[in-house]
Amino acid sequence: MDHVLRQFMRINQLHNLWRATDRVVIAVSTGVDSTALLDLFLQLPKRQRPQIFVAHVNHKLRAQSDDEEAFLRAHLKRLNVPLFVATWPLAEHPDHGIEAAARVFRYQFFKQVMRETSATVLATAHQEDEMVETGVMRLTAGHGFTEPLSIAWQRPFANGQLIRPLLGMSKATLRDYVQQRDLTFFEDASNAELTTARNRVRHQLMPQLVRENPAFQTDFAATLLDQVAVNTYLRSQAKQALKSINHSVSKLLSDPLPTILLLQEAFDQVTDEHHVAVKTAAWHNVVDGLVQGKPECNFDLGGGWQLRRRYDYFDFKRLLNNPQKNVSRRQPERETMVTLNKWTDVMETCQIGLFDADQVVTMRPGFMSVHLHVAAGDLPLLIRQAKATDQLRLQHGQHQSVRRLLINQKVPQEERDHQLLVTTVSGEPLWLVGRRVAVTTSSQQLVEICVKLGRGAKHE
Fold this sequence. Notes:
Number of domains: 3
Structural class: alpha+beta
Shape: elongated
Distance between the termini: 90 Å
């Protein structure tokens, strides 16, 4: 048995990537790596070989793309291996970011093939060279050790797992294997161009690192795999810690685990499978800001995401494409008259009633009710949006502004422009709904004000 095949089988034993009972989709581009991957699966002893399907994407990026597809169709027909092909139409190619767009198209297609075949495993041909290149690229891009620097052996994907069984093999090893097996493969000439960051790392930076340390690739690959194992453990600890932290800033900062690690895990849970890369510098900026203790602030993470702090609570928010839509704007000011012993609809989601105190008001869940003393000349009452400068009367002739009251009650900034205020007909504030009641003179008429921020009310 070939030593590369033995290594391939040993990798599966160590990392439990697939079982013989699985249905596996193999992503094949016809390059040397994916050609080796497909052949290694086909050379497995029958008792270890899963059911195989092949997925190929014709990106229409090169003149030989059609030749590659035609070869693969004929080759797999001879082998009696099911093949699924998707073509990325030229009309869908973007002017910028074509690599990222191609990747999105490719992996969406792989998900589709997995659904159609009921497969639970997708195998890709990422190898050791690419793992090392990715680690170097992530370090130079500012990523830290509290996040994975390497490509993992496997990760959740679609309704199963994405596996990378070749990570322990160099490209040179795979090229030798393919040549010894006399397998046909295609070279992508664009891999030699220096227009992409990966190609610059591969052809310019890596040779310099190898000159400094001839064993750099092997050594760094081992370091990356260790880092992934440590990071996986720390992430599991962070996931447990976040359950008790429960969005509390004070608990976050007092937890013994690194704050950046906890924030990264919390962010990944929000973004789910839509990976958003956040630079280490951005996370340090967040931690510094949280430690400084400003009660309300937003921190840009990049990619249209923010971390928001509202007193002791933090969360993540994705901004809309239109920045203007992300600005909290006041509703147009409108006053609604509230007459005695009657229910009044203020808006679709708000209903208010004003009654003599000796009336019986039957309220359903969701109502708020207060008793106030008002003079006959204060009626009818008005309800409108509160202003930050509105002043509520306190005891001993003191007053407090709506702004200060909301700050004291730690009301989030985005909620402050949506507070309702009940006033006398002359505009004197009586009740900041759900927040504070003004002091009134007890010798005046006693009334009950009921507000329902929803639907459903009954007055008897």
